[in-house]
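Justification of resources, computational component.

The compute hours requested in this renewal are based largely on the per-chain cost of generating structure records like the one below. Each record pairs the submitted sequence with a full structure-token output. That output is archived, and it is also reused by downstream analysis tasks.
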Amino acid sequence: MTLEDKPTEIKPVEVVDTKGMLCPLPVFKTKQAIRRVKADQVIEVLATDPQAESDITSWVGRNGHQLVELTNENGILRFLIRKR
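The structure output for this chain reads:
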């Protein structure tokens, strides 16, 4: 594998930890963070509220941002969101 073949790791400029928070706080905190960053920058959001998956995914789409990645490891949702 050459350097060109290696996937580029996305480095978020801000991490928003909403673990333990319930709706609507994960979306609210995500919205606040997106306002603080510049276009094309990525934030990472961590959440444990199962409803956050649909809430944040919907919010991202409605507001024209890009959901770069969504993972769920041991009940912790990890969103990488690019501001558009």
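Residues 65 and 84 are 5 Å apart (CA to CA). Confidence is low (pLDDT under 50) at residues 1-6.
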